[in-house]
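Exercise 7b. Backbone tokens:
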């Protein structure tokens, strides 16, 4: 138990908030009640399952009595015939007639007893089958509801949850923990309820037939119950530790397999195997303790079970010798003792299994009851005009819960207006990414406030806000779906007619203060791909826009262009570009930039840019330089370069080196991503695709100093014959 407690303490320390283990686990009744609310069984289905459960239990309880009656009918025939023959003596004809009548009567009684037993057995089988089927349907509903609600809770968890721990361990809960709870309802509770009714019915019969046998069974039953309660408490704690260890092992496997290219490139197969083996060893230690406890319980239960039968036989046999029980009654008592003891033993076993399931469900219940991220609140409120015309950060501060001693942002003020482009530059850890998360309301500031369209961001409907903003990350990820579905992710694809109808619906919704769902069309998807310079390579794919893709089937540059199309198709009021063209060559970057400029010219929108390429930053309306979570300076490219002692000028000069500003400039090379990503340039699926290792030609004055992001040298990926992106490294 001490070692188990150590495992639990370790699990508590590594479990991310707010799903961290509570200081004291909830009661079994509380966990069971929460699972019952998740099940939400249909009344007719639950009533039917209970009805057939009781009917099957009653039929099962009648079997020992009918078996005793059948034995009595089978053994009483010869004795009756002999008695009748002796009574009539030499009157052969009368004796023969009496013997024939007695035999016929005994055979009729036996047939009647056997028929009754067969009917009850058939009734029991039918009711048990119906009971099992209905409980299976209830179990199916529980698993469906549990996994649906658990997935919803995980998706809605605060950002801190994903920051402080790998979500792979939490994803394991969807499988292992939910499966354990499912077994509880379909098997454990079902069998336990049946055996409980059998114990109650058998005890009632024994109390009426033989007080001595009932008392003997009650004494042994108390021992079994005490062992079951102790083992149940241990099983619950052990199951909780086991599921935690299983989740840890699943997280290790998910990390290693999800980063297979990195593991292979760095020769980490042995290290990952050792790490997974260490996780499995911790899992095995918990399982070994469970096995030792189960061994002791089985030994105690088996001994108590046979002891109950022996004690009851001695008590009932003594009563029969004293004339208190007839032979048929003694037979029935012994059969009921065996049935009751067997049911009690099974009930004790199922009690331990139910406690194990409740222990496995504790962490699931903790996830279910954890509050969702406040950034997902549906308030039904949108800014006036239902467009974002400005985003203002007023003296905001933020500290990550996982790093309470380090302030990521301190007193930052920033303004984004429609039609203006603001660029963020600065070194690693300067607060750029945190500021972007506050702008997008992925997090809320600890101090200050974020105003969106003149309203506090916390008061704006989350769904509306998500539909009006778009983010293009440096390392975009694709979903295992078609190209069109990836571009339209988060939007409802409708026909042109429905889209026009949706515009009218939006006006009506605006008047009624409801938030219409964001929509798009097939034509808009293609137009966004054209603007992102992605239409050509998408059209070359086997099924065009309907080609299924994943991260590993497209190059880094292709993924980034699809991410750009994903942002443009939303026609956002707020566009955030985080190294959006880092994986493109100069020609592709120019084409994409032209598309972005055209999108910006179509209507004013707020644009926030994080970039290290001077070509991307220099044209911004305002450049904000971040240092240590604060705004160091702000201004235009020319103005900052002309300012004596400017931090921006120092960044440019430091990276220009001997070549000056006419050379290659990366404003933050230490943040540039090198090497091939998961499913990036070395992950193409085309047989003719390859990564070039030869020196690349110079890209021009605005190329990255250390080749961050890679260079788009062809359409690659699933295209019939194009090479994959290539990268160069210093």
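Sequence design result:
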């Amino acid at each position: 138990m001490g070692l188990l407690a150590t495992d639990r303490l370790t699990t508590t320390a590594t479990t991310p908030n707010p799903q961290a283990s509570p200081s004291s686990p909830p009661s079994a009744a509380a966990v069971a009640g929460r699972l019952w609310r998740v099940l939400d069984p249909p009344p007719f289905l639950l009533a039917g399952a209970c009805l057939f459960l009781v009917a099957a239990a009653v039929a099962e309880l009648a079997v020992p009595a009918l078996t005793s009656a059948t034995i009595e009918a089978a053994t009483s025939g010869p004795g009756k015939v002999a008695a009748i023959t002796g009574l009539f003596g030499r009157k052969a004809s009368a004796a023969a007639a009496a013997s024939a009548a007695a035999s016929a009567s005994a055979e009729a009684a036996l047939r009647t007893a056997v028929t009754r037993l067969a009917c009850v057995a058939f009734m029991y089988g039918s009711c048990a089958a119906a009971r099992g089927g209905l409980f299976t349907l209830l179990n199916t509903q529980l698993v469906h509801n549990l996994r649906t609600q658990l997935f919803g809770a995980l998706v809605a968890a605060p950002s801190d949850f994903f920051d402080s721990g790998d979500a792979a361990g939490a994803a394991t809960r969807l499988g292992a923990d939910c499966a354990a709870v499912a077994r509880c309802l379909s098997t454990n509770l079902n069998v336990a309820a049946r055996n409980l009714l059998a114990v109650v019915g058998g005890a009632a019969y024994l109390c009426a037939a033989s007080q001595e046998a009932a008392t003997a069974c009650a004494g042994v039953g108390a021992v079994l119950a005490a062992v079951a309660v102790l083992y149940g408490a241990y099983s619950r704690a052990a199951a909780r530790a086991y599921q935690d260890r299983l989740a840890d092992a699943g997280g290790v496997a998910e990390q290693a397999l999800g980063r297979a290219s990195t593991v292979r490139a760095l020769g980490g197969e042995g290290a990952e195997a050792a790490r997974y083996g260490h996780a499995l060893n911790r899992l095995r230690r918990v399982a070994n303790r469970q096995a030792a406890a189960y061994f002791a319980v089985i030994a105690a239960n088996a001994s108590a079970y046979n002891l109950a039968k022996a004690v009851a036989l001695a008590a009932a046999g003594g009563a029969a010798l004293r004339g208190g029980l007839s032979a048929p009654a003694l037979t029935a008592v012994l059969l009921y003792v065996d049935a009751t003891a067997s049911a009690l033993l099974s009930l004790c076993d199922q009690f331990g299994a139910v406690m194990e399931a409740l222990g496995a469900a504790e962490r699931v219940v903790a996830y279910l009851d954890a509050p969702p991220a406040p950034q997902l609140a549906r308030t039904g409120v949108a800014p006036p005009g239902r467009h974002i015309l400005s985003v203002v950060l007023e003296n905001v501060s933020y500290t990550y819960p996982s790093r309470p001693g380090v302030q990521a942002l301190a007193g930052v003020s920033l303004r984004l207006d429609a039609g203006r482009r603001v660029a963020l530059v600065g070194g690693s850890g300067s607060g750029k990414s945190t500021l972007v998360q506050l702008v997008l309301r992925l997090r809320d500031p600890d101090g200050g406030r974020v105003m969106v369209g003149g309203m506090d961001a916390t008061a704006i409907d989350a769904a509306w806000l998500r539909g009006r903003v778009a983010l293009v990350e440096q390392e975009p990820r694709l979903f295992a779906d078609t190209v069109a579905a990836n571009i339209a992710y988060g939007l409802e694809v409708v026909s042109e007619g429905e889209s026009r109808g949706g515009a009218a619906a939006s006006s009506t919704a605006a008047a009624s203060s409801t938030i219409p769902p964001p929509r798009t069309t097939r034509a808009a998807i293609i137009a966004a791909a054209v603007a992102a310079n992605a239409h050509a390579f998408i059209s070359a794919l086997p099924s065009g826009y309907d080609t299924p893709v994943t991260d590993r089937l497209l190059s880094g540059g292709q993924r980034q262009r699809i991410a750009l199309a994903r942002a443009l198709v939303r026609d956002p009021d707020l566009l955030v570009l985080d190294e959006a063209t880092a994986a493109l060559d100069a020609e592709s970057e120019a084409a994409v930039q032209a598309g972005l400029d055209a999108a910006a010219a179509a209507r004013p929108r707020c644009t926030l840019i994080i970039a290290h390429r001077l070509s991307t930053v220099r044209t911004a309306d305002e450049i904000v330089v971040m240092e240590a979570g604060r705004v160091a300076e702000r201004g235009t490219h020319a103005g900052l370069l002309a300012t004596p002692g400017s931090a921006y000028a120092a960044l440019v000069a430091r990276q220009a080196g001997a070549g000056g500003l006419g050379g290659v400039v990366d404003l933050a090379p230490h943040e540039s991503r090198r090497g091939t990503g998961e499913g990036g340039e070395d992950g193409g699926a085309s047989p003719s695709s390859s990564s070039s290792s030869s020196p690349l030609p110079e890209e021009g004055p605005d190329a990255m100093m250390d080749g961050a992001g890679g260079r788009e040298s062809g359409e690659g990926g699933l295209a019939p014959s194009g090479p994959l992106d290539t990268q160069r490294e210093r």
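Instructor comment: The first strand starts at residue 390 and ends at 399. The two ends are 55 Å apart (CA to CA).
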